Amino acid sequence: MASTLLTSKHVAYIQSLDTKRDRLDYHLTSHLRLSGVYWGLTSLHLLNHPTALPRSETIDFVKSCYHPSSGGLGASPGHDPHLLYTLSGIQILATIDALDEIDGDKVVEYVSKLQNPDGSFSGDEWGEVDSRFVYCALSTLSLLGRLGDAPGVSAEGAVGFVLRCLNADGGFGMAPAAESHAGQIFTCVGALKIAGVFEKSLSEDQVNLLGDWLCERQLPNGGLNGRPEKLEDVCYSWWVLSSMAMIGKLQWIDREKLVEFILSCQDEENGGIADRKGDVADVFHTVFGVAGLSLLGYEGLKEVDPVYCMPKDVTDRIVWNHRKILTT
Ligand SMILES: [Zn+2]
């Protein structure tokens, strides 16, 4: 079992993904393509190989997923726009310093049209509602520098919806009264952080309760699960760990055991990281494994921003240094 991060294998694995267009799994994942590029690109930046994907082709691909009429982005060329892929596209362009390649005003317009009267956001025009989409909306606006300047968007309404998703066990769910889940905790805490209202929204007792719920996700094998009674999974190294970082409780995790667990899920032959040991690696678990290791201070990795899941030097440059603090 590998006891170190196999950086050059992971870089080669990510570079190889786009060359497999003739394989069935390439087409089966076309509904994830733009997010896949974001996962791969972010992995490469954190692995300190920021130029391993060609910049101009990356920009061209993002633009091919953009719908100039609505301002949203779809997963692949020809796919309908969705808030998830709109965020992925903006994250990609922000990371490679190319935000001026698409019309930010139109993207803001797309996002604003998806907000509902109760403050929540729908993922697309078909209307599915999930607290994840509040995060996607606020993160997109924030990366565009438009958080306090988005006509038709009520950040106060969005914050109100997120706070209604808070449960008595300390966690957050996808909607009010829905079961707590680590993925939704990441998005809800992240949304409150982006809006600049986390500290005044939760009491110290509530933060401690949330920290307890999160650190109980670590299993005896070192891995983390997403909710009680579930199996460990590398992606929760990100959802759980980033939430703990955001609330200042990262030290509550057994670092050594989690590092060992993530490293054990690497594909030692072909690169990439799987959800758990012995499974097939994919780019989704690769980025969240690498980002988790970055949060744990693993040597040789670039620092990741726990709020945005992007390289910290990028978000420092475009968000934190210029953000408009909301006055809610
Ligand atoms: Zn997973």
From TrEMBL:
It is an enzyme of class 2 (transferase). Pfam families: Prenyltrans (PF00432). GO terms for molecular function: metal ion binding; Rab geranylgeranyltransferase activity. Transmembrane segments: none annotated. The lineage of its organism: Eukaryota, Fungi, Dikarya, Ascomycota, Pezizomycotina. Keywords: Metal-binding, Prenyltransferase, Repeat, Transferase, Zinc. This is Geranylgeranyl transferase type-2 subunit beta. It comes from Tuber melanosporum (strain Mel28). Its cofactor is Zn(2+). Binds 1 zinc ion per subunit.
